[in-house]
Each structure stands twice: as C-alpha cells, then as structure tokens.
Specification:
Oligomer: homodimer
Shape of chain A: elongated
Largest sheet of chain A: 6 strands, mixed
Number of helices of chain A: 11
Chain lengths: 305, 305
C-alpha cells in the first residue's frame, strides 16, 4: 500500500516501464517532467507535436532527446488525435496534455474513433501526501465535474476507488464531505451523502466503505473523532477518499492544501480507458512527475484487470 | 495593524479591559479560557449560571474564582437571558456561550427585549494566522450562514469589514472565492462574485476593496498571481477577507487549515450590537482565548464608533 509518493514511485519502478503519449509536446514544463520521469524510470514518452519546436524547447532546457520517439505533426488538434490514438491502440499507456488548450485536449479524449471514452463520466482525482497524515488522501472532484448529481457522485466514487485499488488500498474509506456530520434536509449535500452511504451498504457501490455526511475534521483527524464522540462510525479520522460537494469546495480546499500545508501531490483524470494527465501550468515540476507516476500505477492496474 | 494574534492581544492590552458575559458558565473549557483571558489582561468575565456547579467545575480545574462576578441562575435559558442582558445594558462588552445548546444561545441573542439584534443578518468570521502568510486572514462564513444569497453576501462583507477595521486593517481586500477566477454563467457563484465587485466599484459596498471571482491561490499567494499573469487585478495574492460560496466550502476549508497547516485562529459572530463568542467544544483552549481577544478588539472599536 502506497503511503506516500516515494512508495508510489517504488511501486512504479517494480513494474514494466510505461509510456506516456504527449499531445503537442513543445512545452518546457511538460518536457522537464517527462525527462525526469524517464530518468527516474517512471515512464518513457512519445512526443507528438511540431518536431522543430520540440527540439527548440528541448535545447532551451538542455534536454537530450535521445530515447524519446518524436512524431512530427504541426497542427495542434491533429497532434492530439495522433497522440491519443497511440494510447487507444495500446502503443502507449497514458495520455498527457502539452501545449494545447484544455477544451481541444478533452475533445480528443472523447473522440469516438481514437479517443479513450469508457461509457463512464470523466472525473478528476488529486492525490495528496500531507505532512502529519500517514496515508495518501484522494480528493475528488476538485477540477473537472462542477456540480455533480447523486448519479455523478456514484461515478466519481467508482472512478476514484479504481485509483485507490491501483495504489494498493484494497478497501478505501470514502467520506462524502459536508459542513456537518449529520443529515440536514435543508442541506441537500448531506442527503446525497447519506444516500451514497446507503447504496454502499446495499452493495450498489462496491470495493470501498462509504460513510457520510462527514465534516473534514472527522474525516481526516482521529483525535477530532474521539473528541466529538464519533468513534462508532465507519470512518474515524481515517478516510482515504474525500468526496467534495461541488467544484468550489473541492478546488478551494485543494489550493488551500497546496498553498498552506506541507504537501506533495499528483493528479489524473479517470473514467477513461487509460489514465489521462492534465496538469496545469500552475502545477509545479514535482506535481507533474508525481502525476505521471500515478498514471503509471493506474495503467499497470488496468493492464492486469 | 494586527498581523497575528500576538499583535491582536497587544492591541487589547492597550485598551481599557473589556468584560465578557458568559451564558451558563459551568463548563470547564470555557472557564479555562476566561481564566486565561483574565490572567493575560485580555478581558474580565461575569459568570452567569448555576453557582454551585460553577464552583464545582472551577475546583475541578484548580481555578480561583476571586475577581469573577457570579450570577446564580439555575435555569439555562434564564441564565442566557440574564447574561445577554448584561451586554445589552452595557454592563459587559461581549457575550459568550457556555454549557448551553447553540439553538437556545442564538435565541437569546435574538431576544427582542434584552438581545443583541442589530437589524442585520448575523454572520460568522473565523480569523486565521497562517504560517507563511504575513497577515491575518478573515474567513467567512464557515459556520453560520448556509447558502448566502447575493444580498446576504453583502451583509457578510459589511459585518466582516467592520471586524477588519477593528483589527486596524483600514481598507481590507475582500476575495469572493470560487473554483475559477473568471465569470462563468454556468457557475452562479462567479456571477455573484462579479456583482459584488461591481457594487464595490459603484460605492454600494464601502470600506474595502472587493475583487472576485478569485481562486484560492490567486487570493492568498502572490507567486501564483505572478505565475498566472493576474498581477493587474486589485487582489494579487494579498486578500484579507476570504468570502466562501457556501457553508460547505467554508467549513471544509476552515477545518483543512486547522488540521493540516500551522495556524492560530479565533472566531466571533458579527452583525450584532456587540461581539458574540460561540466557540465549539472542538475548538482548542488557545482558540477560545484568541476569540475573546478578537471580541475585545471589536468591542473597543464599537465603543469608539
């Protein structure tokens, strides 16, 4: 079971090396990340994009392109389609965004011919290692699904539990978060949370333990649970997955962690046939490398299923 | 300008000593806080409640009751009414919850005869000192208003700006938070945020600078603003007030800060004729003391206005 990114990278190193296919690879930050991923034996990369520009950007960061396959395609959207089709055809294991706008990148994922659609809604998971917490935390959805319905939340849980399993967490604890830990009909989020818990008890959501609504303290801090007398619940400050009410709550919490706590993190898009890495320019170098490691672990698990 | 709780407590010590009136004072954690507040010259206290029980609880924590006025009232709600009326009549400067349920305590605040209603909606502000951030952050509303309307948000800003002014922040920067920093009609929160910004520009919200929607990173981290190229905005990682879309986003963020970052905090209810201290049992000792200090600073400012 991976308790941090060091464990996760060790886990990756023990598997066959995966390959990431990059859409529009002429991006310095993305090239720096794939270089580090290759050096650390996390993943190889196929660089799809404008070959001249890729070489130019690589030179600007003193990157040796030996060992990287380059596919020359000057049109950005065509490059994305070529890059995603490599994953679709099994020639690469995961798909990563380069210097292309998010909308076009997502469109390529959803392409009916060469895309990675899996008949499931896509969702985003951000995995955190937080100082003082002895396990990985899986935050979802902080970036992709805006206002998930109950049905969407079921899909988000299924997508995220698959990632937990890939990280070696056999029966993750899922906390549908709210401001409070009891159902309040005036707060629809708490009603959804209780419904998800019931669906889990009835075997409609499997492979995990769902217990909500829960406040953040009761989800992540065992001492808070002892203090508030909620130690008879299924989650006692030991949640793995933090399911947010909506993108605002999720995104604000995610950025609070990044900018105030001592953390490492990585993130992928799930619900697809293969992991998709969509880091933003504001993510730092290590986050991009961690995201490739996370993608590799998930790709390995998908291969074995 | 108070940059942290040490500054805030110095500020309190330089004013005339304030008095807190405690409703149903037979609570060990509350008595420990008022003892410390008295010892640190932050505030005196009048203890309203069951005198026998107050003495018993005081003995259990080795607390010397010399110098504390005790008003004996065995009925909890009557004790609350007596305690709040002391503030209403100017015999005390702020009102604090003891061993009484929150609903009854709030009812006493709203009592037409002896309460503290001010024809404004009540809101909650949680003030944070966060390691790595060189100013106080005022989070609102993380505990009281559930789903604020645009009109409610105006009131929350007004209530909170008053607290900022009391802390010496003459023209606080208010960031209406969202997952994104641009208006998206599919995200009503961003539309509200833009509307609040416009109302501020038009002079309908005064004493502060409002700039929203803003994502959390752009609100608190100047480096993120530089990185994302938003340095031409009114807020460049230097927000004082963080206005949350709803109680879930606010409460989850608040508890994330408390349980993962290195922080000090204190909180009060505002929108009343005098500050109200409603800490929960899960707040630690220092948070309760900090809340009394915050209440004292606000009471001093109210006296001078």
């Amino acid at each position: 079971m991976a308790k941090g990114f060091e464990d996760l990278i060790s886990k990756v190193n023990s598997c066959s090396t995966k390959t990431v296919s990059v859409a529009v690879a002429q991006d310095d930050a993305v090239l720096e990340a794939v270089r580090a991923a290759k050096e650390q034996n996390i993943a190889n990369a196929i660089l799809v994009g404008d070959e001249d520009k890729i070489k130019e950007v690589a030179a600007s960061i003193n990157m040796d392109l030996t060992g990287f396959e380059i596919i020359d395609e000057k049109d950005n959207y065509q490059a994305a389609l070529k890059a995603v089709s490599l994953v679709h055809d099994g020639k690469a294991d995961m798909y990563m965004k380069g210097l292309i706008d998010t909308k076009s990148f997502l469109k390529s994922i959803l392409d009916k011919e060469v895309g990675l659609r899996n008949n499931r809604p896509l969702s985003h998971v951000c995995v955190f290692e937080v100082e003082g917490i002895d396990r990985l935390l899986f935050l979802t959805d902080v970036a992709f699904m805006t206002y998930p319905t109950l049905e969407d939340k079921v899909s988000i849980i299924e997508n995220t539990v698959e990632v937990c399993h890939a990280c070696g967490i056999a029966n993750p604890k899922v906390a549908p978060l709210a401001a409070v830990e009891v159902v309040n009909p005036k707060m629809p989020v708490t009603v959804d949370a209780a419904e998800l818990t019931k669906m889990n008890e009835e075997g409609k959501i499997t492979g995990c333990i769902v217990d909500g609504p829960l406040s953040m303290d009761l989800a992540i801090d065992p001492q808070a649970a002892i203090h508030k007398g909620t130690t008879d619940r299924k989650i006692v400050g030991d949640a793995d997955v933090l399911l947010f009410p909506d993108i605002h709550a999720g995104n604000i919490t995610y950025k609070t962690l990044v900018h105030t706590a001592n953390v490492k993190n990585g993130n992928i898009i799930t619900g697809t046939k293969a992991p998709v890495i969509l880091t933003s320019r504001s993510d730092d170098f290590q986050t991009k490398v961690n995201s490739i490691a996370l993608g590799s672990v998930v790709a390995e698990a998908m291969k074995n299923n």
